[in-house]
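Students often ask why we bother encoding 3D structure as a string. The short answer is that it lets us treat folding as translation between two languages. Here is a chain of 240 residues written in the first language.
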Amino acid sequence: MSTSNYKLPHYVYVVFPLVSIITANYINKTFKPIKWEGFGKPIYISQIGFTILLWIAVIFSFILFNGAKFWIYFITYFAFSYFFYSLFNRNSEIPKLFTSTLVTILGVAFVLNTHFYPSLNAYQGRVLAGKYLKENKIDSQEIIIFPQNVHKPTIDVYSDMLIPRTQKLSVIDSIVNNQGSFYIFTNDSGLDSLKQQGCQIIHEKVFKDYQISLLSLPFLNPKTRESVLNNLYLIKVVKR
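And here it is in the second language, the structure alphabet:
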């Protein structure tokens, strides 16, 4: 990973389990000689407090991004209820700290993968555009990206093709004049340039876009989310 020229934060996730085991082993060796005297209760309280914070985050995920399906709510409610049951159940042979933590991990992972991440994906404009192109069978001979900085690899991946791109309006004029009509994937500034050029647009589809790897409070807040979103456009231009 250290030699990769293109790094993303989640690349380190694969080492988390190993690091957790090494850390747990180190803590155990450090405190075992003193028989954990005086540390048991603080560790228990801090762990329970941490798991409760995770469940609060789960609840907020449903508030910030509504529209989850009923079965997601149902399974989450069941896991949340069992979490509290495990805390107060005195008859279980399994340590309550282990049970409550395990249920929290499974519950949080479930909500992340069935609700939170899919909700974020709705704001990946290039992903949505790529899927739209593939579903509507628009191939690389019918579309161009303008200007070039609108391009990111995700649109190529999800459209299953390499989409050409240009920085010059003259190239677009030449293509439209030769083919009669053409699709252009662009942003606000590109759309303004095309309109100033006098391009005749007969079809326009808007995709909301945000860099979800950099979450911010304005984006997470439903009331201010719209103000930080960018627009990406798939337009069809015809010969004048």
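Translate back mentally: The longest strand covers residues 200-209. Keep this in mind for the problem set.
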